[in-house]
């Protein structure tokens, strides 16, 4: 049995009872609201292909549609990317801005996240450009320039409340990942280590780097450690280096993702925030820890 989820952006919802009823009329199934005017599920749609039907009815409205299995919806492992996923920014681009080279670095970041460049080489190239940046400046950027993505804390805290293990695995830097993992509530954080000479960056990162293979392997390891099938995992990210973990997770979610990532992910959230991952799992508003 499957469940069709309709999820809107909580800050500007275009999902209403009329739209939901229109989808049910065409797909069949039982309508259940998880959060009124924000998220609903249509249980056991009768149509053989309900997802494209729902998307055609939704049209240009800012509403996501996803079809998920009804069985084992609530996952026991969450593995998440950080930059442009759990936080709104790309940390390396913000560091580059302090040196007046944001446009140059951001272009490399964007191409790497689209899968157009080798991730490791692109990382080394960008970090080399940051040589000499002082620790106090990096701390100020972390404090002043980086913002948490909406719904992230609710996602992590709710999954933890219901027994899940949560892991932040980033191709970014521990300087940010350790800090924001604690603020959001992750059990662990894994990221690349910036190297310093005194209080200034050397322009290098410790090897081996955290890349797409690290993310995939950490997901596999967490499932093995907890004796859980991969069907009990959920992975979320936006860039090409997230695709390997997205492909193998029970729910692989591309969140506001690059086109190449969205094209391959099983689930795409283009409009909702991170609470969308809870609605996909069948959590109602009353169950979400905020």
CATH architecture of one domain: 2-Layer Sandwich
Structural class: alpha/beta
Rg calc: 20 Å
- Please report the total strand number as a whole number: 12
Choose one word for the global shape.
elongated
Helix and strand element order: EHEEHEEHHHHHEHEEEHEHEHEH
**Helicity range:** 25-40%
Major beta sheet, specifics?
A: 6 strands, parallel
Number of helices: 12
As residue ranges, the low-confidence spans are none
Strand content: 15-25%
The strands making up the biggest β-sheet line up spatially as 7-6-5-10-11-12
Average pLDDT works out at 97
- What is the CATH topology of one domain? Alpha-Beta Plaits
Under CATH at level 1, the class of one domain stands as Alpha Beta
Distance between the termini: 30 Å
Summarize this structure briefly.
Helix content is about 40%, strand content about 25%.
Protein described:
The chain is α/β, with parallel strands linked by helices and 290 residues long. The protein has a domain at 1-71: Alpha-Beta Plaits. It is built from twelve helices and twelve strands. A six-stranded parallel beta sheet has the order 7-6-5-10-11-12, with helices on both faces. It has a four-stranded antiparallel beta sheet with strand order 2-3-1-4. Strand 8 (194-197) and strand 9 (200-205) form a beta hairpin. Helix 4 packs antiparallel against helix 5. The longest helix is centred in the C-terminal third of the chain and has 14 residues, at 212-225. The two termini are 30 Å apart.
